[in-house]
Amino acid sequence: MRRLTTVLAAIAVLLLHGSGAARSAELHAAAAPSAGNPSAKASVVRTYYIAANEVNWDYTPQGRNIAGIPHVETAEDDTGKGSRHVIYHKAIYQEYTDATFQKLKPRPQQWEHLGILGPLIRAEVGDSIRVVFRNNTHLSVTMHPHGLAYTKDAEGALYNDGTAGSVKADDRVPPGGTFTYIWSVPERSGPAAMDVSSVLWMYHSHFVESTDMNTGLVGPIVVTRKGEARADGSPKDVDREFITDYSIFDETDSWFFEGNAGKKGRELRLKALNPLLREQNLMYSINGYIEGNIPLLTMRRGEHVRWYLMSNSNEEDVHMAHWHGNSVTWNSMRTDTVGLLPMGMASADMVPDAEGIWLFHCHVNDHYAGGMVGRYQVLP
Ligand SMILES: [Cu+2]
Which fold has domain 43-379? Predict the structure, then answer.
């Protein structure tokens, strides 16, 4: 009887998780609740199939200066004949439906704004995360998570750590290679007592770290407090979530810079002698979108909205995210700006009461002028 109860509980858990339509991960009941406590949640392994792919990334899919900011640094010339698009060859993380890596998993509409970021990896404290990783690029890359618990065979970072042999297989996944990363989510990976119900972490490639990130290999992780998550891992007390990476991509530090420079022809090669070359190739983006190209972040008045904020690793990645129109709470304090240092992570909660389309931008002058601007909309 106990065995039957256990099997039924496991099936119930699978059905429950299967009903989470927005869930992008495959879920498994790794252990059944004890017969003595049928309401106890089974531990869950959340499986993701993620590849590093080379793409031509368009920082401006809708065109230039979509936010309509005066004096933004728009096209390369001001005649109106300049390029409508800013495109660089890059490498990004993308999610697939299964281990054959034949079919890209469609990104849910809720997460279209993630842009250049890899797929959202979610967990509730107590879960495990299994990432089957395929490297489809011509580079050596890895996946290195922040905040989660991992052993030396799943850290995804190459350095002299006293290990050898197969324990280092995660440290450098060669072109065409596959590696399965197993990470766990103990209490110390989730919200602390003073945190809100979920916390942001990130993952990124950590072979040549700075170059890997400037090439585009970065993505988000969200961990929800135990007992406070829906089946899909999202926090129960939140109506809507957004993840924004205040990300400068230094295209001169990308693995593909020479190729990108070559494509732009003689003009850019001549600029190689120009001390301003790097500045001209710093992309002041939010999620890889500049000049208001991030999809309009839409919510309803009165909803409990959670904003997860992060930043990239360049020395210029010192940001001040600012919302027009509404305020947020962050670290239990009221504000309308949240500061980020390089690789910083923050969660801010908003209950919008002001309807309309509002600017959401970096308040550092250089970054604002460079196009680190988006907009959000509050509907009735
Ligand atoms: Cu900034």
Answer: Immunoglobulin-like (2.60.40)
